[in-house]
Design a protein that fits this description.
Layout (H helix, E strand, L loop, with lengths): L1 H4 L16 E14 L2 E8 L2 E7 L4 H9 L5 E10 L14 E12 L17 H6 L1 H4 L3 H23 L3 E2 L17 E3 L7 E3 L5 H9 L4 E9 L11 E10 L3 H19 L4 E2 L6 E3 H8 L15 E2 L1 E5 L4 E3 L5 E3 L12 H6 L10 E6 L2 E8 L4 H10 L4 H14 L7 E4 L3 H8 L30 H6 L11
Parallel strand pairs: 3-5, 6-9, 11-13, 12-14
Antiparallel strand pairs: 1-2, 1-4, 2-3, 4-5, 7-8, 9-10, 10-19, 14-17, 15-16, 17-18, 18-19
Helix pairs in contact: 5-12, 10-11
Bound molecules: aspartic acid.
Aspartic acid (ASP) binds next to β18 and β19.
């Protein structure tokens, strides 16, 4: 026992290597089963679960064990024993062993959790799960989702580095980039009355990284969009954002396709990609045939392991809004398809002008958008002109881009797969909130921290702001 106290804590996953030895473990009580003289405890840590038994010949440990409740935090000394043949549980990772408890120390007690943590959680109301997200994340399914997400991000990072990309962090406080959504604004204290915008994506910065000569940029980028309630969206989400110089559309499509093929093979070997190379369809064909620009091309929609990737290409450059105004269909930095350049320069037939822009679709979800960009000042100015942006406004909003293009901007293009969606689809989860550690509700609220919140009177005064309408909530 004394010797055991000197032991270093090991993880539950390491216990099978210590059969016949004393070990020190620490974690949470998952379940306690009191059989009178015998107390069974399931212990849980970051690496998994193991069954422990407290025998009557350890009276002190028995007393402690009987007082334990689910989610209490304990440290345990015990012997790792092989279970008798007939008690081996082949369904569980540590089902062949059992820890015979020698002593237990309670490190912290816990209130009864507001919901069951040992289930997959799908039966529990989501608002409650989000309010106690730190408890919800303890469940096996959520641990798996968040750890898989880390594996996916690690894969992308390694893949990019292997391909010679450099990861560059671009600012969160910026001037904004038009991607069709409302921007979040951050008031400046030093320059009262002025605002930063939070990035809808690093679009402009990544293009400026190309002008800066990095040639291959990537970033695990957080994007912020202040959208109204619309399906499975989050006000902030994560993209694998990348950009390359001296490439044509085909290079980006092939590069991306290889990357998705490899991630499925390496991390999700049970999944099957229905068609390689990924089928390609133009936007026009897709709309005509499927009535959507996100066609679901699965052969069997009930097969949870089928992955039907597809490229949708030749998106229109411009779209007509409900109020008859014109907008860039994707963003104003996409280049125009060679065949449509003349019309574009003449400013004719605008809604039939196609861009060198492409989407990657998976099982009916848009995974990513990208394009070959404009890298010449006069072409960029023509786009702005057709979007009815005056010379003055162009200069004010995008002067830095127009100017950068006059200093030797290389041809370039890129792509930005949404990481939340990739993980959601590969983990067969029904929405992205299941693969984000601390998501917001559809109304944009963080129910755990209770944000957004009021009560910033001093800061608001310092910022030179005045609230004119009170939020009624
Ligand atoms: N910035 C674009 C987006 O967020 C992606 C791209 O064009 O690379 O959709």
């Amino acid at each position: 026992m004394e010797a055991a106290k000197e032991l270093k804590r090991i993880l539950i996953s390491e216990t099978p290597k210590h059969i016949g030895e004393a070990v020190k473990l620490a974690g949470w009580i998952d379940v306690r089963r009191d059989h009178g003289k015998l107390v069974f405890l399931d212990l849980r840590d970051m690496s998994g679960k193991v069954q422990m038994v407290v025998l009557p010949n350890h009276p002190e440990a028995t007393v402690v064990a009987q007082s334990l409740r689910s989610e209490w935090v304990v440290e345990v000394m015990g012997n790792v024993n092989l279970r008798p043949e007939k008690l081996i549980n082949t369904e569980q990772p540590n089902g062949a062993i059992e820890i015979e408890v020698l002593s237990i120390t309670v490190l912290n007690e816990a209130q009864t959790p507001p919901f069951d943590i040992s289930s997959d959680g799908k039966e529990i109301g989501e608002e409650l799960r989000l309010k106690y997200r730190y408890l919800d994340l303890r469940r096996t399914r959520m641990q798996k989702n968040i750890r898989t997400r880390d594996k996916v991000i690690t894969f992308f990072r390694e893949y990019m580095h292997r391909e010679n990309f450099v990861e560059i962090e671009t600012p969160m406080l910026m001037k904004g980039t038009p991607e069709g959504s409302r921007e979040y604004l951050v008031p400046s204290r030093l320059e009262k009355g002025k605002f930063y915008a939070l990035p809808q994506s690093p679009q402009q910065y990544k293009q400026l990284c190309m002008v800066a000569g990095f040639e291959k940029y990537f970033q695990i980028a957080r994007c912020m969009r202040d959208e109204d309630l619309r399906g499975d969206r989050q006000p902030e989400f994560t993209q694998l954002d990348y950009e390359m110089s001296f490439v044509v559309q085909e290079d980006i499509l092939q590069f991306t396709e290889k990357m998705f093929f490899e991630i499925v093979q390496k991390l999700f070997p049970d999944k099957q990609i229905s068609q390689t190379p990924f089928p390609r369809i133009t936007y026009k064909e897709s709309m005509e045939k499927y009535g959507s620009d996100k066609p679901d091309m699965r052969k069997d929609k009930n097969d949870p392991n089928e992955l039907a990737f597809a490229w949708v290409v030749d998106f229109p450059m411009f779209e007509k809004m409900d109020d008859d105004t014109i907008q860039a269909a994707h963003h104003p930095f996409c280049s125009i398809k060679e065949e449509d350049v003349e019309k574009f320069m003449r400013g004719e037939d605008l809604f039939n002008i196609r861009a060198n822009s492409y989407d990657l679709v998976l099982n009916g979800y848009e995974l990513s958008s990208g394009s070959i960009r404009i890298h010449k000042e006069e072409i960029q100015k023509q786009v702005f002109k057709l979007l009815n942006i005056s010379e003055e406004e162009q200069k004010e909003k995008f002067g830095h881009m127009l100017e950068a293009f006059t200093f030797g901007a290389p041809p370039h293009g890129g792509f930005a797969p949404g990481i939340d969606r990739v993980v959601m689809l590969l983990q067969n989860e029904p929405n992205i909130r299941e693969v984000i550690a601390f998501p917001k509700t559809g109304e944009g609220r963080d129910l755990m921290m209770n944000a957004p919140s009021s009560g910033f009177t001093k800061q608001i005064a310092e910022l030179g702001l005045r609230i004119v309408t009170e939020d009624k909530k």
